[in-house]
């Protein structure tokens, strides 16, 4: 999985507050004193902090083993080279799903409220999500996989934990002759992520190395998935789930996975690679979900590259989902995105309080010099929003500009002010029935008051849009920009 190099000064979302490690990161010294098998992997840096060598697969595997044992009472192991999960990171995804299930955006499964049932696509030898979900929250799981070694070890990891054995079924995905075999290129030890986790909180930790984006993936965009079935053909007739989750094989081949000498979390080609990379894998999940529809309350997947979010959200629109939610998972130097969607009709619409308060706004521009007419101001408003990525319709007869911001563009351009932040952790996007409601549409009108004074009015057109809460801040920014341009000599726009 790729990671994202982040600017240290940038404000980061934090680890999920329900995560066991949010307040108390793993204490290597304590773990070493309690577990002799972990002790040889711990050393002390000059500042006296206990550390482990993240480039040593045996060290990262032993850390995961003792964390699962110490904090979750789970017996766990994986063979050499298999993908080794970092427990705090994986816990964030589980808690996000917990939030989705407990939110009242879509109806809960009233009949089976106490029996949550999840489907982990590609559970891996480590079987980490079913193990965490079952032990932390008592959830039932089906964990699927195609790889023999994954199926064998996932089952072993379940069987070695009698307290949750009843909750987890490991299901083999049957490959048909029409599917392409997974790539056979073996590079021995490989990196699955460009991440370096440093639980010690030491300031001088190194930034993550971002593996290069596969060039041909970028150029060619989406390639069709030709691998084994993912949901359709694996889910049985009449089966219902509260959610599915997936940490997909992200890369097209092992070369493209990029090798990061700073970490060693294992990961075989079967675990890391699928034809077309994560985009094609998740696109197939979306296509399957459009057939399976209400068999799942929530469909979710992890995404390794933010650049894939936009096209995947467009795909979701195409297939007519009712709700899309995204989140960012951040832990240490690791950054991923979560994408969730549903076909169930939303129970409520998310409208930020500011929308209810302010769907029309206005301001006066005074002291405008003679050479600037109302038409000039109107055209400036149009070009201001066009440059920000909106589409605009100018009417010079009525002195009106109609502005439409597309939500996906806002995400891609990283303009958080256009997105309605429902919690600190997630950006919520609700696409309700109509096609308009996931856009932000407003009308700006310019009125001549007296020479040198204009009134600028803004009126929100679709108040139910989930991102309409951003209207007032956008309008305030317009005011600032126009004042800078026309009322002083500062050229802001
Ligand atoms: C990146 S690993 C994730 C393993 C584990 N869930 C984790 O988070 O560490 C992806 C897994 O998906 C499996 N896989 C690939 N194609 C699959 C398919 N069509 N259905 C189910 N699993 C698949 C691989 O064998 C591999 O175990």
UniProtKB/TrEMBL annotation:
Lineage: Eukaryota, Viridiplantae, Streptophyta, Embryophyta, Tracheophyta
GO biological process: rRNA base methylation
EC number: 2.1.1.-
PANTHER family tied to this protein: RNA N6-ADENOSINE-METHYLTRANSFERASE METTL16 (PTHR13393:SF0), SAM-DEPENDENT METHYLTRANSFERASE (PTHR13393)
Name of the protein this chain belongs to: U6 small nuclear RNA (adenine-(43)-N(6))-methyltransferase
UniProt record similarity statement: Belongs to the methyltransferase superfamily. METTL16/RlmF family.
Region (Disordered): 1-22, 180-205
Lineage: superkingdom: Eukaryota
SUPFAM superfamilies listed in its UniProt record: S-adenosyl-L-methionine-dependent methyltransferases (SSF53335)
Keywords, alphabetical: Methyltransferase, S-adenosyl-L-methionine, Transferase
This protein's GO CC annotations: nucleus
């Amino acid at each position: 999985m790729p990671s994202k190099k982040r600017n240290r000064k940038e404000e980061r979302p934090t680890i999920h507050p329900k995560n066991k490690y949010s307040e108390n990161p793993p204490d290597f010294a304590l773990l070493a004193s309690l577990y002799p098998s972990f002790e040889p992997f711990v050393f002390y840096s000059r500042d006296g902090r206990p550390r482990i060598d993240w480039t040593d697969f045996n060290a990262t595997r032993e850390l995961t083993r003792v964390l699962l044992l110490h904090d979750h009472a789970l017996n766990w192991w994986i063979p050499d080279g298999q993908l080794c999960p970092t427990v705090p990171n994986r816990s964030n995804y589980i808690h996000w799903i917990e939030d989705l299930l407990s939110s009242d955006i879509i109806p809960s499964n009233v009949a089976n409220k106490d029996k949550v049932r999840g489907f982990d696509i590609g559970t891996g030898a480590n079987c980490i999500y079913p193990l965490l979900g079952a032990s932390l929250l008592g959830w039932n799981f089906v964990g699927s996989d195609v790889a023999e070694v994954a199926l064998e070890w996932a089952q072993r990891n379940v069987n070695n934990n009698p307290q949750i054995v009843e909750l987890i079924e490991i299901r083999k995905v049957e490959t048909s002759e029409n599917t392409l075999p997974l790539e056979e290129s073996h590079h021995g030890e490989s990196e699955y992520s460009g991440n370096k986790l440093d639980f010690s909180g030491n300031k001088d930790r190194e930034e993550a190395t971002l593996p290069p984006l596969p060039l041909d993936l970028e150029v060619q965009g989406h390639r069709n998935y030709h691998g084994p079935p993912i949901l359709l053909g694996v889910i049985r007739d009449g089966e219902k789930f509260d959610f599915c989750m997936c940490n997909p094989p992200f890369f097209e081949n092992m070369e493209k996975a990029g090798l990061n000498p700073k970490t060693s979390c294992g990961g075989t080609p079967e675990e890391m690679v699928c034809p077309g990379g994560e985009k094609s894998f998740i696109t197939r999940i979306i296509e399957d979900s459009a057939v399976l529809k209400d068999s799942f309350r929530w469909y979710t997947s992890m995404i390794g590259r933010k650049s894939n979010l936009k096209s995947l959200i467009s795909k979701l629109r195409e297939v007519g989902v009712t709700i899309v939610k995204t989140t960012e998972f951040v832990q240490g130097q690791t950054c991923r995105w979560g994408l969730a969607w549903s076909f169930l009709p939303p129970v409520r619409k998310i409208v930020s309080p500011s929308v209810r308060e302010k769907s029309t706004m206005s301001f006066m521009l005074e002291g405008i010099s003679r050479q600037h007419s109302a038409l000039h101001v109107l055209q400036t408003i149009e070009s201001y929003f066009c440059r920000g990525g909106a589409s605009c319709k100018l009417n010079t007869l009525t002195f009106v500009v109609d502005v439409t911001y597309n939500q996906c563009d806002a995400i891609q351009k990283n303009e958080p002010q256009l997105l309605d932040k429902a919690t600190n952790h997630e950006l919520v996007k609700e696409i309700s029935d109509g096609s308009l409601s996931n856009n932000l549409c407003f009308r700006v009108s310019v009125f001549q008051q007296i020479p040198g004074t204009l009134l600028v009015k803004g009126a929100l057109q679709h108040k139910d849009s989930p991102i309409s809460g951003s209207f007032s801040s956008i309008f305030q920014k317009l005011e600032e920009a126009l004042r800078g341009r026309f009322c002083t000599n500062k050229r802001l726009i």
